[in-house]
Amino acid sequence: MNLYNLFIKPYESYNFWQILFEFLGTFFGILSVYFSIKKNIWVYPTGIISTLIYVYILFDFGLLGDCIINVYYTVMSVYGWILWARNSEDHIHVEVSWASKKEWQFGTLLFLISFIFVTIIYYYKPYIDHNFSMENTHLGLYHLDWANWLDVVTTSIFLVGMWFMAKQRIENWIFWIIGDIICIPMMIFKGLGITSVQYLVFTIMAILGYVNWKKSFKEKVN
């Protein structure tokens, strides 16, 4: 796969507004990660804008199953925003800490629930993407390739990461790093070269976030 097919060809059929919305979704996504590194509550407003843009993009392309998953992301972002607002003394920044054993157990349960939920979405995806019509539609997981199954896994990883971030736990970055690294080759396989670069940027930013939050906690303790 050459660079033209990877970065240019997929966008030849897009109109101006589709390209603009994808750019804005990416921009606000990166901005959201930047604010999260800084422990700034603006991580959530910018993140919600990004996910809502992708909800529109996916709906416009008729990818209703993926659209529903992004609605799920949006709801989790609202939950995180509420928690950060409650726990912030200056209404902007929050203090961070390591997760407890009980929180790890809940995170594991959340991963399993998310995995089942996303798998169910994919099971009904032919029906959902066919405008909720069963005409010439066959339910099942037969249409999933390895990239789709990785998508199920990474979605579950990201949702756990979002929950740990909402709780201001340093471990959230570990989930973002793992999920972002997996997404890079997955997006290349799907022909989404620009998105793969975005996840490379996310990986670097997540590593910086982990280092920054860990340093901030150490300074608070000492």
UniProtKB/TrEMBL annotation:
InterPro entries: NMN_transpt_PnuC (IPR006419). It is found in: Cell membrane. The keyword Hydrolase does not apply. It is a multi-pass membrane protein. GO terms for molecular function: nicotinamide riboside transmembrane transporter activity. GO terms for cellular component: plasma membrane. Keywords: Cell membrane, Membrane, Transmembrane, Transmembrane helix, Transport. It comes from the Bacteria. It holds the Pfam family NMN_transporter. The keyword Glycoprotein does not apply. The chain crosses the membrane at residues 16-34, 41-57, 63-85, 106-124, 146-166, 173-190, 196-213. PANTHER family: NICOTINAMIDE RIBOSIDE TRANSPORTER PNUC. Required for nicotinamide riboside transport across the inner membrane. Belongs to the nicotinamide ribonucleoside (NR) uptake permease (TC 4.B.1) family. This is Nicotinamide riboside transporter PnuC. The gene is pnuC.
